[in-house]
Design goal:
The protein has 368 residues and is of the alpha/beta class. It has 2 domains: 181 residues, Rossmann fold (3-Layer(aba) Sandwich), CATH 3.40.50; 118 residues, 3-Layer(aba) Sandwich (Rossmann fold). The longest helix is centred in the middle third of the chain and has 19 residues. 40% of the residues lie in helices and 18% in strands. Keywords: Signal.
């Protein structure tokens, strides 16, 4: 489906995040009044649960964009927000607390999407609708799933890596390392599937890892293990499922003495990753229109709070039911695409990206 492009600066988003409560990661949800009406007013309560803060997108983009859209659509609604810090037990406490406080709608990006069916069932028993945000919850039926076409993300990463290896003439001359995301995140399994759809039979996979918590530190350790096992000169590429883990892999390779990096993939278009692409340390990232994801979820949450249930254009089977879904399109971004996507859409300003040491690289990439 067609996606609205992101047109908001990082500075504005960070300001919006800073205006919220600072106790975002406590087990008790923090409350944000969407408009000017008091939190105890007649408006509905929407509870938003995000899984972790190691990936910068959640606090810098998802939360403020979601809250701003709820405020626009429902000035007397208020948002209960919690971040679980990658702790599934903590997230359970947060969801249960929100249900006790009378949340009208749950928007849940689960730490462990395969284990939260009992939480969803508790919400159902209280007649509180649930939206699975970004990660597909399995084992139970619920109202909506909003995310990206995750298998397609993995296919785009795999294709970009394969194209880069073929261009360098190294696809058949060495081995690649695959660094996947958290095994408790079903999106990670989709990215992994997509990457294998493209790469299997075309490259030699030397080492492959599922990385707990999507941790950059653990990805660095995994990459160090791979370099020791395969040999520094035998690694021709790295399939990293996101930008944070790519940073860990690059740190390991620098410690091992690499002066030129082989092609390395990523996802999320983190600022540091965009800068690494410009400097040549990282080959590509996946640009996700987080604004579209957050705003669509906010629209559905407000509709559900009002007793409405809009039709969804897609379906996602979670092993138990076909969940009405909105599956948004990812965009692969290499250095030649930064200006026409990330910068053009206002995801980052040129001034955010183009530090003094990147002035020449930005000019060459057409960023101004």
């Amino acid at each position: 489906m067609r996606r609205g492009m992101l047109a908001v600066s990082v500075a504005a988003l960070l300001f919006g995040a800073a205006c919220g409560n600072s106790s975002d990661t406590e087990a008790k949800p923090s409350e944000t009044t969407a408009g000017g009406a008091g939190g105890a007013g007649g408006g509905k309560t929407v509870a938003l649960f995000l899984p972790e803060s190691k990936t910068t997108r959640y606090e810098a983009f998802d939360r403020p964009l979601f809250e701003a859209k709820v405020a626009e659509l429902c000035p007397d609604c208020h948002v209960l927000y919690s971040n679980a810090d990658q702790d599934s037990a903590k997230q359970q406490q947060q969801v249960e607390a929100a249900l006790t406080q009378g949340a009208d709608v749950i928007v849940l990006d689960a730490v462990d999407a395969a284990a939260v069916a009992p939480l969803v069932n508790k919400a159902k028993q209280k007649k509180v609708p649930v939206i699975a945000y970004d990660r597909l919850i399995s084992g139970i039926d619920y109202e909506y799933y909003v995310s990206f076409n995750n298998v397609r993300v993995g296919e785009m990463q795999g294709q970009a890596l394969l194209d880069a290896l073929n261009a360098k003439g190294t696809a058949g001359k060495g081995q690649i390392v695959m660094i996947h995301g958290s095994p408790t995140d079903p999106s990670s399994a989709d990215y992994k599937k997509g990457a294998h759809n493209i790469l299997d039979g075309k490259v030699t996979i030397g080492r492959e890892f599922d990385t707990p918590d999507w941790s950059p530190d653990k990805a660095q350790q995994e990459m160090e293990q791979a370099i020791t096992a395969i040999g520094r000169d035998n690694i021709v590429g790295v399939l990293s499922a996101n930008d944070g883990m790519a940073s860990g892999a690059i740190a390991a390779m620098k410690r091992a003495g690499y002066t030129t990096m082989p092609p390395i993939t990523g996802q999320d278009s983190e600022l540091a990753a965009v800068q690494r692409i410009l400097s040549g340390e990282q080959y590509m990232t996946i640009y996700l229109d987080i604004r579209a994801e957050a705003e669509r979820s906010a629209e559905l949450a407000v509709a559900l709070a009002k007793g409405e249930k809009p039709a969804a254009p897609d379906k996602a089977n979670n092993g138990t039911a076909d969940i009405p879904a909105y599956l948004l399109d990812p965009i692969p971004v290499t250095v030649d695409k930064i200006a026409d996507t990330i910068i053009k859409d206002g995801f980052y300003k040129a001034a955010d990206v183009c530090t003094p040491e990147l002035t020449d690289a930005c000019a060459k990439a057409g960023i101004k």
